[in-house]
Structure formats: C-alpha cells, structure tokens
C-alpha cells in the first residue's frame, strides 16, 4: 500500500550487462552506499536491489561502498555520469543534501535517496514509514517479556520504528519498563554493545537493536545471554531462530527494481514517495521458535484488522 505524497515541481563494484533497453529511458544505474554490502542489513539490501535491477532491466549497475563524505559522493556521481549512468540511488538519508547541491550540474540524471524531505525536479525521496511495523513488533515483545523490562537500542532518537515499538509495548501493558538508548550512528557497534551490556544489568530480556551496523552483533550477544531480540531491515530469523522473535523488515531489494522500472517508463515522480506497512515492502518477518502458535495467530489477526481498517489497537 503506497501513500503517494507528490510534492511535485509540475575500489567500485560493477554489475555488468550486455546491453541497454531500446524503448525506455533507463541507461545505466549507480548506487551509493554509506557503508558496505556486507553489513547484513541496509547495505546488503541496496546491493541486492542492484542485482535485481541488473537482472530485470538488462543494464549495468555500478556500486560504490563507504561513500561517507560529500566529496566522495560528488566524485562518484561524476564518475557515474562518465559511464552513462542516468539513475543514481543514494542508499540513505544523508544523500539528499548531497544531491540537492549537485543535481543542477547533472540535469540528465535522476537521483533517488531514502528517508528524507529534500526534493527537486530530478530528486525523489522514498520514505519507509516504519512506525506501524514497529508497533506490532513492540506488541509481540510485550507478550514475550518475563522480567517486564524491554530495551530499545536505536541508531537515532527520531526513528519511526523505534517510536512505534515503544507505543506497541505500551498498548499491551503500560506498566512494562522500556529503556531507550540512541547510538547516534547507524554503525557504532561498540556503543550499541555498551548499551546492551547496561540493559543486561537492568534485567532486560527483550531487546530491539534498530541500527544497520550493530543489530546482528547485538542479536548474537542476546543469543549468548538467552534473551529475545527483534531483527531489523532483513528477516533475521536465521541468525538466531530461538532468539529472534520477529523482524521489522524493509524490503529495499524489492523496491529498487520497481523504482527503476518507473524511471524507464518515465513515470517516476519528483518529490516524496511514502511507503507504508503493507506486507509487501514493509512487514514483520518470520516468527521465532519461541513464539507460540496461539500468540502468532493472535498478532496476525491484529495485523489483518489493521490492514482492513487502518486503525491500530489501543
């Protein structure tokens, strides 16, 4: 289910291919990652999205990792342009500011980035609204805790899914104590682990590590301590089936080829696209082994009712 908010102004990895579309406007694709394709979450999703574009569109996809400064981004875009790229993905919110500074110099390139409010005639922001899926995962966490103490380790304090998680816990039982710590980074494992260790001392038994670079390390630590965890970005059931009770999934690898197809068809809007909880691109992952069949069925019913009515439980 899309909510289209049209604020319309009326060393690299190369995935090569053998040709171009003759009847569309897509030539080659460039992808900029703040981190790495090996982070098991956000970066990996961008990489898989690039693979899907290559397979479906028969174009070359160029990927640059660790683009963490404006200068690196500008140099990468210039190199992309020399190689015939006319669709550039910035895999993160920070790329919005960079694209806003350079898009006039690349008028024949369309820029897409994620989770921001900056837009222009050739800039599209795709916003994943994670509040609702965070809410449902929080409901599940509230049902699974035995110590009545749950922990959230978010990358930043403003994350929709973290806020939704907290509200979901409260909707089940307002007396549950929820500790929230923000790492102020998507990738600072050391700081995230420090918060996790503090939570252990406070008797937290369910933790939600909502950050690209630290959620898997925290999940593995939770497994060692026999605690529960909620996965982030990808379905992380396989990381620790008895520990991960569910995951808040952003299906970024699926939205990439759809956006590329829209651009090829000259139907990609400038402005902001909001993607909401719809069980296609934003959804809860597989339930963990510790989640009872009865509890899983109950949550599925709650989600189905939400999809029909648009109303969250109170």
UniProtKB/TrEMBL annotation:
Keywords associated with the record: Cell membrane, Lipoprotein, Membrane, Signal
Protein location: Cell membrane
Domain ABC transporter substrate-binding protein PnrA-like: 28-286
InterPro entries xrefs: BMP_lipoprotein, Peripla_BP_I, PnrA-like
Topology in the lipid bilayer: Lipid-anchor
Gene3D superfamilies documented for this protein: 3.40.50.2300
A Pfam family the protein falls into: Bmp
Family: Belongs to the BMP lipoprotein family.
Protein name: Transcriptional regulator Med
Protein species of origin: Alkalibacillus silvisoli
């Amino acid at each position: 289910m899309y909510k289209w908010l049209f604020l319309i102004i009326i060393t690299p990895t190369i995935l090569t291919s053998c040709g171009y579309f003759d009847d569309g406007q897509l030539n080659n694709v460039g992808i900029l990652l703040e981190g790495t394709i090996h982070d098991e979450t956000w970066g990996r999703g961008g990489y898989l999205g690039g693979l899907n574009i290559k397979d479906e569109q028969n174009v070359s996809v160029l990927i640059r990792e660790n683009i963490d400064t404006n200068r690196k981004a500008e140099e990468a875009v210039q190199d992309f342009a020399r190689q015939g790229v006319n669709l550039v993905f910035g895999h993160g919110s920070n790329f919005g500011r960079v694209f806003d500074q350079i898009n006039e110099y690349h008028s024949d390139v369309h820029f897409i980035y994620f989770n921001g409010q900056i837009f222009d005639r050739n800039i599209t922001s795709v916003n994943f609204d994670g509040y609702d899926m965070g809410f449902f995962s929080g409901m599940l966490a509230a049902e699974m805790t035995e110590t009545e103490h749950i922990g959230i380790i978010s990358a930043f304090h403003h994350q929709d899914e973290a806020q939704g998680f907290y509200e979901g816990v409260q909707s089940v039982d307002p007396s549950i104590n929820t500790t929230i710590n923000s790492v102020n980074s998507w990738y600072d494992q050391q700081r995230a682990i420090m918060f996790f260790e503090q939570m252990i001392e406070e008797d937290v038994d369910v933790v939600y590590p909502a950050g690209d670079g630290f959620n898997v390390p925290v999940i593995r630590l939770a497994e060692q301590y026999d605690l529960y965890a909620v996965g982030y970005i990808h379905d992380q059931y396989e990381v620790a089936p008895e520990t991960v009770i569910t995951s808040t999934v952003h299906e970024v690898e699926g939205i990439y080829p759809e956006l590329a197809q829209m651009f090829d068809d000259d139907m990609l809007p400038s402005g902001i696209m909001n993607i909401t909880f719809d069980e296609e691109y934003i959804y809860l992952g597989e339930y963990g082994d510790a989640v009872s069949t009865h509890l899983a069925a109950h949550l599925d019913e709650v989600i189905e009712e939400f999809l029909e009515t648009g109303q969250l439980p109170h």
